[in-house]
Design a protein that fits this description.
Layout lengths: L1 E5 L3 E11 L10 E15 L2 E12 L20 E9 L3
Length: 91
Amino acid sequence: LSKDFIPNKLHTKIGAAAALSNVAPSGGGNFMGWEVNGKVGYDFGAFLTVEAHAAYMGLGDFYNSKVVNGNSNTKPVNPWLGFVCLKWLIF
């Protein structure tokens, strides 16, 4: 989903995804996890944009298996990401 709150200036985007595995590893399930992500961008000019991005993933029962998580008894921590970028096409 995307929306321009100020046309050609302030734009946003939200996304989501989920993943299933065809094969379940021993001790784990088929559901690999889900993700939500988003972006907010502001255009200062025709070729200059500042964007802020963020994402979060919830790991599924696929990672309960020792085979896929490095022979560890615990499931990895749910990963997240956030960053800001400057896009300037002319310099």
